[in-house]
Amino acid sequence: MIDALLVVVVKVMLDFTSIISILSIFLVFFLRYFLKDRADAMFNERENSMDKNEDLNSNEMNKCNEINEYREHELKSAIPFFGKVLVLALMVLAAFLAVNGILSQVLVNTDGENDNVELGNTKKAEQRDPAPSNHNAYESAEPAESKRPSKFKVVRSKKFSNGSQEIIHFHYAEADKSKLVVASAFELTKDQRVDYLHKDAERALVQMIAVANAEGVLLVPLSGFRTYEKQSELFDKAVQRHGSEFAAAYLSAPPGYSEHHTGFAVDIGDKKAMEFNLKYEFENTEAYKWLISNADRFSFELSFPKENSQGVSFEPWHWRFIGTKEAFEVFQAAKSL
To answer: What pTM was computed for the model?
Structure first.
């Protein structure tokens, strides 16, 4: 706790220092030209008065000479002084950037070490207390609350068994809300619906939709980020509709195990064939065929193809973004199964 507080204090001080440095640079140039303009104005005003009155006495001539000397003196003294201020400001700014870079690297390394320790402890715990295998039942307990949900680390999986058939869902932490942005807002039946995605996935999705649109294919995002609570509602309805948790898990992930929690997964439909959206028939649409041929150009991949290793139902509409290190690591366990 104390270390974290010190880090915050140091970063605030560094940010304040950078602001002062930048303001100093602007102040140097402002004063440099302000003094020059001020001296020029005084000198020009006196010269104009000289042109209007040819019978200047010696006192007035002396004043003109004094003003001219003042201008030259101010300029000569101001340039070295403010030059030093400028150099000092640049040195402070360079020091800030160096210290900030070192501090960021230390924080990254510390987080990586903590993640490795946490993952190692989780594996040891699973080896000491293996999950019981029950027919038609969960094979693991509910996931513990994530201490750092923004890290998106896969910590365990949940299995559903029915004879020789097995379904596996991986645990995903909820996305850091500060990294979510609005991905789509559209009319769905009578309700106005707004969906969110991780900013990296949203940026790639917008580019993909624009390129597809230019080629005559109208992609439409249907569902993005989901909370545990929303997924719980969907899974409970699936259990009621299909009669068992195993049947529900084949079609829908239990809460805490949906890729939608990460903000990197999105359900995509075809605006020209809305009646096939979120259905197996989506496989026959222009949108799906275009995605199969082009989605990888934008770092999207189909999460659950036919006969996937997780044993989950084929979902032609469900795509996940893997275009950044963070996103790739989120789905690494599922991809390596």
So the answer is: 0.55
